[in-house]
Amino acid sequence: MYPQANIDEEIIKIKTLAVGGRRMTKSVFNQVIPLSPFDSELTFTGDKVIGYVYEQQSRWLLFIKDGQLRKYILDNILQLINVGKSTKYKDFQSLADRLRFGHLQTNFDHEDDWNKERKFATESYSEETWGKILNRIDKAKSFIAFLDDRQIFISA
């Protein structure tokens, strides 16, 4: 029913990261300082992407910034790529705040709780602003696709 791999014939590459000539361990990973590698336009500002680690139900980006190893949780970026016509304004604005998009001019009064709860994000911004948001979503999709084959495994 399902294709089965013959273990003797399959070659699987597992990428590990060496720090100071030794494999990165979970203990070392936990000590890496978190830092956002993106500006408000979602442009990568780090020096080099190393890859990502899947740890505790989240993907963590490992990258170099100013010669230092840093990490960044990709949960918000992964949520951004799922923003669409059915995304409510309130949910999108919360995500935009976490991603530090800065002020995005809306089409309604910010004190209007009814609109915050019921309006869709696509209805809440001008075409120009929504176009900028879509550009950021495209950047997020491209970045996640770039990471697709760059998973790194760390030792326990």
TrEMBL record:
Taxonomy, superkingdom: Bacteria
Protein name: Uncharacterized protein
Organism: Dyadobacter fanqingshengii
